[in-house]
User: Which sequence fits this backbone?
């Protein structure tokens, strides 16, 4: 039996992986919601609301951690909020690249 070398993904704790998946599931909806809101408010500059959508994504994941701290239904860890919010930064970078390409 050969031992394989651990990859970067293998070294991430399973708890953090689940928060990353949660972020991949809910962050796009939050950011798309902000893009729609921006289009309704400022149609010519709505793309900036995509960048602003990163803030509520971070707040949502940190809110989950605060809820776990308050209710005791889970373990409060700030790194869980960072793991969940990480995909929102990736989405923000994709929006920025698209924004630059469109200009």
Assistant:
């Amino acid at each position: 039996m050969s031992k394989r070398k651990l990859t970067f993904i293998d070294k991430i704790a399973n708890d953090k992986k689940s928060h990353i998946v949660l972020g991949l599931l809910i962050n796009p909806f939050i950011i798309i919601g902000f893009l729609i809101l921006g289009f309704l408010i400022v149609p010519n500059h709505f793309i900036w609301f995509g960048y602003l959508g990163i803030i509520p994504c971070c707040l949502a994941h940190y809110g989950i951690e605060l809820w776990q701290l308050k209710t005791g239904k889970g373990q409060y860890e700030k790194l869980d909020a960072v793991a969940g919010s990480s995909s929102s930064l990736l989405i923000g970078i994709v929006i920025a690249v698209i924004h630059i390409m469109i200009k």
